[in-house]
C-alpha cells in the first residue's frame, strides 16, 4: 500500500523547517523541536520560474521583482547606550534571477535558476541571516542587506495570505519566527499587519 504524505520538509533554516502542507498549500517555518512525532518527509519542490510567475500573476522579469508589505511598529530598548527606539517594520518579498545576485549557498534553492527570499530591514539581531549583493543595470553592485531565504512554495503561500489580509496566518507562517529571532524583546506599539499591495516592481536598484 502506497503511503501518501501530507507534510513535506521543503527546506531547513537554522533550527527550523519549512513545512509544506499539500492539503491546503500552506507553508510554515516551524522549529524542529515542535515537530517531534509529526510524520513528514524531505522533498524539494522545484517550480520553474515561468510557472511561479504565472501562479503569482506577475510579468516576466529582467533581473528581479519585489513587493513591499508594511507590518507593524515596534518599540525596543537598547542597553548600550540605554535608550528606547522605535522601528517601522516592513518586509520585501523578492524573486531574483541568480545571474544577478551574489549570495550564500542555500541547499533548498540550489537547483533553481532564481532566488526567493524575504528582505528584512533594521534587524536588532542578524544571527543566521544571509547577505546578498545585487548586480544593477549599470553593472554596479548594491548591498541588499539581510535576507531570509524561503522556498518558492512559501512565496506562493504568503501571497495568498497577503491577499486575504490574514494577520493570524501570516504570524503563524513566518512572522513569529522573524519577530522572535530578529526582534527579541521588542513590543508592538502600532497597527499590526497593514497589507498594502502596490504590486510587483522591477528590481533595478
Features:
205 residues, alpha+beta, eight-stranded antiparallel sheet, four-stranded mixed sheet, 40% strand, globular
Account of the 3D structure:
The protein has three helices and twelve strands; from the N terminus they run ββββαββββββααββ. With 205 residues, it is an alpha+beta fold. Strands 5, 6, 7, 8, 9, 10, 11 and 12 form an eight-stranded antiparallel sheet that branches. Strands 3-2-1-4 form a four-stranded mixed sheet. The longest helix is centred in the last third of the chain and has 16 residues, at 167-182. It has helices spanning 49-56, 152-164, 167-182, and strands at 7-13, 16-21, 27-31, 41-42, 64-79, 82-97, 101-103, 114-120, 130-135, 141-149, 187-188, 201-202. 18% of the residues lie in helices and 40% in strands. It has one domain (46-202).
SSE blueprint and pairings:
Blueprint (H helix, E strand, L loop, with lengths): L6 E7 L2 E6 L5 E5 L9 E2 L6 H8 L7 E16 L2 E16 L3 E3 L10 E7 L9 E6 L5 E9 L2 H13 L2 H16 L4 E2 L12 E2 L3
Parallel strand pairs: 1-4
Antiparallel strand pairs: 1-2, 2-3, 5-6, 5-11, 5-12, 6-8, 7-9, 8-10, 9-10
